[in-house]
Amino acid sequence: MMPVPFALSIATRALLLCALAMPACAQEGVDGGAAGVTHGDLSTELGQGGQHSVRGAVSREQGGMTLDVAMDGLRNGNYRDGSVFHQRGFNGGAEWKVRQGRFGFSADQLNQDTRYPAPESPFLALLAVRPEDLYRYEVRRASAFVQRYVDNFELGVELSQRDKRATAHYAGEEGSSESRYSSRRRQLAPRVRHYGKMGGVGTDTEVGLDLMQWQRRSGRDGDGQRRQYSRALLLREELAFGGAYAPRLLLGLRHEQFQLDPADMPVGGSDWENQNAWDVQGSLQLRPQLSVYAKAARSYRIDDDGYNRAGYRPLAGQLRRETEVGATFGDAARSASVRIFSERLSNQIVFDQSLGQLGFAGNLDPSRRDGIAIEASMALARDWRLDAQLRQVHARYDDYAYDGPDIALVPKTLASLRLYWTGQAGASGDVGVQWLRALRYGRDFDNSCLAQVPAFATLDARYTRKLGAWELELAGSNLANRRHYGDVPGCQSSIYLKDARQLRVSARYHF
Fold first, then answer.
1. In angstroms, what is the C-alpha Rg of the chain?
2. Residue 282 contacts by C-beta under 8 Å, 6 or more apart in sequence?
3. Which residues contact residue 1 at a Cβ distance below 8 angstroms, ignoring those fewer than 6 apart?
4. What is the DSSP letter of 449?
5. What contacts 24+ positions apart, CB below 8 Å, involve 322-325?
6. What is the pLDDT averaged over residues 301-320?
7. In terms of pLDDT, which residue wins out, 247 or 364?
8. In Å, how far are 130, 176, 184, 312, 358 from 181, measured between CA atoms?
9. Burial of 355 by CB count in 10 Å (0-12 exposed, 13-18 middle, 19+ buried)?
10. Reported confidence tier of residue 362, pLDDT bands at 50, 70, 90
11. Cα 334 vs. chain centroid, distance in angstroms?
12. pLDDT of residue 221
């Protein structure tokens, strides 16, 4: 396999040439006289706590061409002093369909400004003196693809690039400091897909490559640099058998190799230069209204920018093993499903604020989560439907010196009930309640705090009315104004409350 940077350079030029040449093919394969259709949406929402948002989207279709553009803005004042969030977004793209395939491109940009919440009164005064205390985040993405059909084959290639920039201003008593981060990731993803039959068994085969190049600059002056390359081979096979039970089998495999600059390589090398992931899934239709399935999977996560006590150095690779079996019974009038799952995590990558004032990334000890989830739906009448969910999870550490009854802040029991109504003249609504069982929190590394978040229930509702091209909505969350925790890093300290009662009104116009 050729080096990743060289392959990306060649592919970039080839894909750009294809994108420039294909519009001529599109003109040959598309009726230029076809009438175009333009439609779109305009919407706005107002809510408590200084929350408001606006969004606009326009799409045009003509012949085999489709153009899409959307813009949005969001502001949330939050319930905590000093915490204000602004977001602005844009995305657009175009796609052309021809007789032999399709091609297109897309681009999007996201900008966020976040002011830090004030934990105490002295800090409020500091913010008033130094309003530059701010976190700014920007991400840009661009991609282009070409896909061609040849008999039972699909040949495709996609090239994408993502740029991130982050700037953090910290206000302090002795002055302000600034931290900067920027990164760029390029990815080339060629694919070959084939549809066929083998002895009465339908086959869907896909083979692909992922070639990635990643680099970043970080630090107060942006002088810290790092590069990383990876290449992955993926295989996927789906088999559809006939017969009374219509069995289906899905097999997937991914092998990825990572390469760091020698200056960034940990002493003694790394434990994740070669990674493998796989999944196996199967299903049977035992009866017209009863189906069963089972799956097992192994996946990995590599930390490409873990800031730990040693600086920007790679963490151990996270490994996840999952197994699940389930069954679904019923039809559109009434249905029920049950699934039993188990998940094992090794070297779980987390961001832990308790390791320092600003926090560091780290790996957790091996843990597992075993549970069962039940879902049911029933049509009570022509305009009424009831949905119910129940989830029970037992989360604990494996072979851990401080093994406790539960992993902190993992819900043990979660239940919800929601009633849907569809009226006449474009009216509809729903109301739901969610209940969370008490769970343990705080000082998870030494298990010295057995304090619990009390059990709580929240209520939310929504009412919608359509008037021609307009759609009006009134929604509310936590209607009972239940004060409940969102995070508790310490033992009965550093308690973060979730939002109180929130009412929102919105209007949408479709054309």
1. 27
2. 247, 248, 249, 250, 293, 294, 295
3. 231
4. -
5. 322/295, 322/296, 322/297, 322/298, 323/295, 323/296, 323/297, 324/294, 324/295, 324/296, 325/292, 325/293, 325/294, 325/295
6. 72
7. 247
8. 22, 17, 11, 12, 15
9. middle
10. confident
11. 30
12. 57
From residue 207, alpha-carbon distances to 11, 40, 124, 298, 334 in Å are: 18, 37, 57, 19, 40
pLDDT of residue 294: 98
Instruction: Give per-residue pLDDT as tens, 31-45.
Output: 555 678 999 999 999
The phi, psi pair for 27, rounded to 5°, reads: -65, -30
| Pairwise CA distance, residues 151 & 149, whole Å | 6
Burial class (CB in 10 A: 0-12, 13-18, 19+), 166: middle
* 495-499: average pLDDT: 70
Give the chain's mean pLDDT. Answer: 84
What is the full DSSP assignment across 131-176?
TT-EEEEEEEEEEEEEEEEETTEEEEEEEEEEEEEEEEEEEETTEE
Residue whose structure tokens are 């070959």: 192
pLDDT at residue 434 above 70? yes
| Residues 6+ positions from 14 with CB-CB distance below 8 Å | none
Other C-beta atoms closer than 10 Å to the C-beta of 190 total 17
Residue 18: pLDDT band with limits 50, 70, 90: low
Q: Is 324 exposed, middle or buried (0-12, 13-18, 19+ CB in 10 A)?
A: middle
Q: Which pLDDT tens digit goes with each residue over 166-187? A: 888 776 666 667 778 888 999 9
CA-CA-CA-CA torsion for 280, 286, 289, 294, nearest 10 degrees? -20
CA–CA distances in Å: residue 300 to residues 74, 308, 347, 413: 34, 20, 10, 27
Nearest-angstrom CA–CA distance, 362 and 342 = 23
Q: Is 265 exposed, middle or buried (0-12, 13-18, 19+ CB in 10 A)?
A: middle
Q: What is the pLDDT of residues 201-242, one digit of tens each?
A: 999 999 999 999 988 887 665 567 788 899 999 999 999 998
Residue 209 and residue 297 in contact, taking contact as beta carbons nearer than 8 Å: no
Check: CB of residue 464 under 8 Å from CB of residue 473: yes
> Coil, strand, or helix at residue 35?
coil
The answer to whether the CB of 450 falls within 8 A of the CB of 441 is no
Instruction: Please choose, from the candidates 328, 436, 412, 325, the residue with its C-alpha nearest in 3D space to the C-alpha of residue 376.
Output: 328
Per-residue pLDDT band for 356 (boundaries 50, 70, 90) equals very low
pLDDT at position 437 over 50: yes
Cβ neighbours of residue 348 closer than 8 Å, sequence gap 6 or more: 318, 363, 364, 367
Residues 203, 197: Cα–Cα separation, whole Å: 6
